[in-house]
Write a structure and sequence with these properties.
By secondary structure, the chain is α+β, with helices and mostly antiparallel strands. The protein contains nine helices and 13 strands. The strands form two sheets. The protein has a seven-stranded antiparallel β-sheet. The protein has a six-stranded antiparallel β-sheet with strand order 5-6-7-8-12-13. It is globular, with a radius of gyration of 18 Å. Keywords: Glutamine amidotransferase, Transferase.
Length: 277
């Protein structure tokens, strides 16, 4: 499938997380240990905010992340307090730039690992449900982008968790009509520059891997001389498909059917329960 990460905290050079960490996201694009596929070489995407109220910047490429020299230069040059990054392993759809995550609509970005089972059979019905005012913003052909615009249609901007719950409930209802089971497997992240919203959920309760960082304040005490921790600050928070550094105390697995909302130092964990919109 895919691997992704989301970061919020002190502004850091993007290469700190993308390249310098042991088992970084770039390393995972070749050597994933917890994904459905070991190699995730069907494109890369990166989105970042310089200021909370700005439209995010974005870089996407169909090159494998490990072989993208422009990405390495960009990650060395850019410093940001919040960003999303994604390495892709394509399923139903072609390798093209418009199918690379994160997807963006105004201030919002969205990244996904997983799939809608039977998406080609359901695609028309799912796309027709997207708000007509947003439909022309669709650029690619992935189930992930369809999920993003369905969530936008069902209220992501007003209440991100509820918007995602309605999206998941709608997908499952359409799948049931088509006799498709299980319908949905997803770890997703959405952000508007002020918050990170991440979800781990699947219809069969057997979701793709997802982890979050534990207290960086505690890690500073345990590892005061570790430069990988020193730069990010006490209130930094990372959500990752799989751990990116070799510190067992640094990571905890996100439980099944759980949503996480991160606003600065405030972190809220909620049950994730799909509902039909």
């Amino acid at each position: 499938m895919c691997r992704w990460l989301a970061y919020t905290g002190n502004a850091v050079p993007l290469e700190t997380v993308l390249f310098r960490a042991r088992h970084s996201l770039i390393d995972q694009s070749l050597h994933s240990t917890k994904g459905a596929t070991t190699t995730n070489g069907d494109g890369f995407g990166l989105g970042w905010y310089q200021h909370p109220h700005d439209i995010p910047y974005r870089y996407r490429s169909v090159h494998p992340a490990w072989n993208d020299r422009n990405l390495r230069e960009l990650a060395r040059a850019v410093t940001a307090p919040m960003f999303l990054a994604h390495v892709r392993a394509a399923t139903h759809t072609p390798v093209q730039e418009t199918n690379c995550h994160p997807f963006r609509h105004r201030r919002w970005m969205f990244a996904h690992n997983g799939l809608i089972q039977g998406f080609p059979l359901m695609r028309r019905e799912l796309l027709v449900a997207i708000d007509p005012g947003r439909f022309n913003a669709l650029e690619g052909s992935t189930d992930s982008e369809a999920m993003f615009y369905l969530a936008m249609t069902f209220g992501l901007e007003a209440d991100p968790v509820k918007g995602l719950e309605r999206m998941a409930g709608f997908v499952e209802a359409v799948a049931q009509k088509h006799g498709i089971e299980p319908a949905l497997n997803m770890t997703v992240c959405a952000s508007d520059g002020e918050q990170l919203v991440a979800v781990r959920y699947s219809t069969e309760r057997n979701s793709r891997s997802l982890y979050h960082s534990t207290s960086f304040r505690h890690l500073h005490e345990l590892y005061p001389d570790d430069p990988r921790i020193a730069a990010v600050g006490d209130d930094a928070y990372l959500i990752v498909s799989e751990p990116i550094v070799d510190l067992p105390e640094a990571w905890a697995e996100v439980p099944e059917s759980t949503a996480i909302v991160v606003r600065g130092a405030e972190i809220d964990y909620r049950p994730f329960v799909p509902v039909m919109p």
